[in-house]
Amino acid sequence: MLEAPERSPYLQPGTVGLLRLEQALLARARADSDLSPDLAATSRHAHAEVLFSQARASFEQAGSAWGTATTDQALGDLYVRTDRLADAETRYTTALDLYRQVEARLGEANTLSALGRFFSASGADDQAEVAFAAALAGFEAIGDRYSAAATLTYRGQHRVARRRDDGLLDWRRALDLAVTVDPYLFGQVVTVTLGDACRLLASGEADDFLATALAGLLSADAAMGDQLSDDERGRLGLALAGLALVHDLVVIRSSGVTPGDTDRSTLRTTARRVDEATGLGFGLAALAEQVLGEASQGGGGDPLARLDQHHLA
Predict the structure, then answer these.
(1) Regarding the domain delimited by 1-143, which CATH topology (the fold level of the hierarchy) does it fall under?
(2) Nearest C-alpha neighbor of 45 from the set 29, 64, 21
(3) Most buried residue among 133, 210, 280, 286 by CB atoms closer than 10 A?
(4) Model-level pTM greater than 0.85?
């Protein structure tokens, strides 16, 4: 999950409900990361559900709509992970209603973002678009750039999966925002955006889409312009260099053109640089070797040079 943690204006940290909610969230996190056999993971999720139910009962007894809503949202996330989709939708809807009752705008927007992901996974494309748009409007209204970047990343995934060019524009906006907000968040956004682009490149099933959509991403105006620090500019430039490389490799494969020796060396160097700097296992160097090995004749390009000239000006 990429969202910032919800902060309650209604509860003190020592309340029984919050303590139980924290225990339930920890139990769910352990269950989600459990690498043991399915039965053990199922048991851990069941334990987390019991703790969430106890937390919810405590919040209801205390008359805390915020606490009840927060627990319902967390239960919705748990039910999505355990493939109980009808229960998940019920919990998300209840959480949304309760957040709106107490005018908890961050909770409302977080739940709308969760509903966007839920509807996307369920194949309800129109409902996903509505939920994502409402979540983004909510985050922007309260100035939450962290959660806006996360939601743009999720909506980008939703749109890219449906081969929509504007999904890549969402990813560009997410990268531009995240790099100024939090290094860890930026790393997560890079993991999704560059990771998904590499997987599509490796599949060989979306070359035309990738070529067009990545060109749009790389030519888009930077959201933060000259406001970036040198460090932020460097991290963003590296991510964009990786995406530019994917674009170049797609174009090379689609055209059957073999770059010259200098260009091949540049492509390989960029691939190694991104792999080494991110440490995220994208395998760009291996992908570059594969595409270059398959290419048949003449031409090429320099993604880093184009990046310097156009994308971070």
Answers:
(1) 1.25.40
(2) 29
(3) 210
(4) no
